[in-house]
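Per reviewer request, we include the raw input and output of the structure prediction for the construct analysed in the revised manuscript.
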Amino acid sequence: MNKRAVVAFGGNAISNRHVEDSISNQFTNTSESLSPIIELIKNGYQIAMTHGNGPQVGNALLRVDLARGKAPILPLHICVADLQGGMGYMIAQCLRNRLRHEKIDMEVATVISQVLVDENDPAFENPTKFIGQFYEHKKAVMLAEEMGWRKVAQFPGDRRWRRVVPSPKPLELIEKETIRRLLDQNTIVVAAGGGGIPVVKREGNLIGVDAVIDKDLASAVMARDIGADLLLILTDIEKVAINYGKPEQRELNEVSLDQIRAYYNEGHFPAGSMGPKIKAAINFLENGGETVIITSLEKGFEAVSGRAGTRISH
């Protein structure tokens, strides 16, 4: 094997919005989402996987809230680390079972992963990422004071309030050399779950911070840092479209880096939907990557085979 791919699973790969979000169902959803991984392995790729954790981190923060006064308050960066372990275990176990079924002899490892951010990133002065539960205004303010939250705000289109945290730009995957060595040993790696644990450097030491790193931007950083050729982003749409939701909407099959950059600059991909995925694709290709594929989870197998999805390259 001499080709490497990073596969970024969206939250729908594990928590299907149409069924109860039980642990049993999460295992089932995970098992059913692995066909693109198997196809890439059969095509000679070394694989690093990453995943979203939106629904799961919300549940983790709810547990912290409910345990207030009974157990130590867990900061957000510890919740992300806990979920990397729990979700990484689930993905690795499901993948081992699938590999055994396919008679593929490969190891699987989950790496608890830190991602470096800049302590002076403007995002820390302007938190924008809503997380956790909805609260009435009075309770949101009380919890913010009691638990040390930096900001709460009214959720757009809703009378209720939520916690708001920074979403800084990912700079570097701290465990990149470990992941490289595992890939060299024919091991599939699950890493940087939920965008990675955000850390800053102070006097050379790593310190965890309460923030949320965009999972797709972190995937592009991981792909760059491990020397991947391909970045496969699995989401809830089959193809990227310009003029989305308008009569002139057009789906993109194959598009160049220059074209997708122009569409991005023209405002076709809003920050709250496809924007981070397109930005991740641009970052990866500008930093030496060869190809990005964006498609739905259901079409992942066909996209790897060249029969679905949006393919972006130089």
